[in-house]
């Protein structure tokens, strides 16, 4: 549970960038990639944080307390060092990427997946997806369950774009959404 709760650290550290809202002096966190646009980054951050957490726990990098300490308190202190290490690594990656490239980590990931998003929303892409589903069914696998796991981030991203377009009274840009 603690590893799952700490998986937001790399994602939050990589997605957050301070900015100033127009007509305001108050600094805010740029949360553009906390929606479906950042789902690919969230998946990568979750895998990364769980693996780092597992690595640190296997190496016994934790604060050791006496046996008399209650188990709930003991588990909290055992998770403290891995969470601190995750925070430091995530912020270091965030600062390095923003300094060298000048953009956020989720922007880079989204640009890498943009061709897949564009292809999946065409007639050829949709027919290919349908064909793969049926081939998997023919091979004895539940094709829809296999493909939906891979398509969910794409569909959510397209759905988010459609929601934004609908709220702005624009035509819906994506067919494969939701």
UniProtKB/TrEMBL annotation:
Pfam families: PTS_EIIC. PROSITE patterns: PTS_EIIC_TYPE_3 (PS51105). GO terms for biological process: phosphoenolpyruvate-dependent sugar phosphotransferase system. The chain crosses the membrane at residues 34-56, 77-97, 117-139. Keywords: Cell membrane, Membrane, Plasmid, Sugar transport, Transmembrane, Transmembrane helix, Transport. InterPro entries: PTS_EIIC, PTS_EIIC_3, PTS_Sugar-EIIC/EIIB. This is PTS system chitobiose-specific transporter subunit IIC. Residues 1-178 form the PTS EIIC type-3 domain.
């Amino acid at each position: 549970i603690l590893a799952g709760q700490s998986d937001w650290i790399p994602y939050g550290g990589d997605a957050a960038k301070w900015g100033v809202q127009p007509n305001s002096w108050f600094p805010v966190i740029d949360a553009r990639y906390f929606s479906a646009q950042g789902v690919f980054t969230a998946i990568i951050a979750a895998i990364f944080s769980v693996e780092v957490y597992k690595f640190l726990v296997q190496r016994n990098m934790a604060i050791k307390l006496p046996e008399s300490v209650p188990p709930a308190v003991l588990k909290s202190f055992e998770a403290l060092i891995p969470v601190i290490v995750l925070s430091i690594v995530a912020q270091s990656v965030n600062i390095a990427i923003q300094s060298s490239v000048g953009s956020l980590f989720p922007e880079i990931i989204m640009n890498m997946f943009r061709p897949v998003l564009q292809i999946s929303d065409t007639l050829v892409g949709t027919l290919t997806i349908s064909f793969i589903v049926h081939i998997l069914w023919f091979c004895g696998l539940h094709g829809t369950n296999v493909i939906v796991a891979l398509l969910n981030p794409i569909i959510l991203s397209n759905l988010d774009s459609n929601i934004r377009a609908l709220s702005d009274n624009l035509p819906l840009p994506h067919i494969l959404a939701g």
